[in-house]
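Data card: per-record layout.
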Amino acid sequence: MTIKVAIIGVGAMGRNHARVYSEIPGTEIVGVADINMQAAADVSRRYGGRAYADYLRMLDEQKPEALSIVVPTADHHGVALQVIRRGIHLLVEKPLAFTLQEGQEIIKAAESNGVKLMVGHIERFNPAVIALREHLSSGELGRVFQIDAHRQGPFPARVRDVGVVIDLAVHDLDIMRYVTGSEIVRVYAETQRRIHTEREDLLSGMVRFADDTVGTLTTNWLTPTKIREVYVTGERGMFRVDYLTQDLYFYENAVANGGDWATIQVLRGVSEGPMIRYAIAKKEPLRSELESFLAAVQEKASVTVTGLDGLKAIELAQALVTSGLDHRVVFI
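The structure for this 332-residue chain is written out next.
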């Protein structure tokens, strides 16, 4: 069975969606839409499907069964509702929507129309993150004390409608929930506008989980090199994930391994033990994400990242923005 798919928005990320769809067996690209007709035509020639400047015309003429929405965040709501009204399954690139209300309306519309809705939180499909979650779930770290996320890099010219919190920190907020299995109950943030003149381009954030784990987020568009890492510290040591290389490391606390943390802390403190670099089969996260989406469309699996997951990420990100602007702790 061949699934007819389409892409709305073929900027840098949208082109990647088209490329990956074209590589997945049993998938046919029937349409590519972008307000930049030249961009749509270029992608169409390379990966297939008819090019359109008007996505509504594409939906009505090509009638895709599933598609990716890869337009600016401010446009997610309007485009998604048009897609849902036509009964087409959709993957919306993160964040789900510009506001909580818009996200809620997208979710409600999808439920009412029996449409599969998935949110493109791509880091959930990073093999190193999946492995990290498995190791934490098995209790290998013991009690988790702290999770620290670093997501820094140069200013992206493509982003104009949101700040660094909505564009980047949503990744780490979602991953923190995913790997810890605990919900964030309060946040505090310091934000700055240094280069991005309309919205924040720097975040130093702190979050508290229901299980008393503490999380920190260091996020900006000011660092000249790209950094994508997360650290999880607990009783028996520390895990480190490098998102870019898909590597997972474990630094063992030699003293606390298998012992009672409170007693050992008093007697000897923390000692450095051996470091393990796990062998992880590398795979492009976007390929895994789109395969997961198509499996849900075909009723072969459940939706991996639900609309409610996407909504929670928006809620937490907006709480950080509010905290940064108002200089106060925000309770969730």
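Known properties of this structure: The radius of gyration is 21 Å. The chain has two domains: 3-121+286-305, 124-283+315-331.

See the next section for split statistics.
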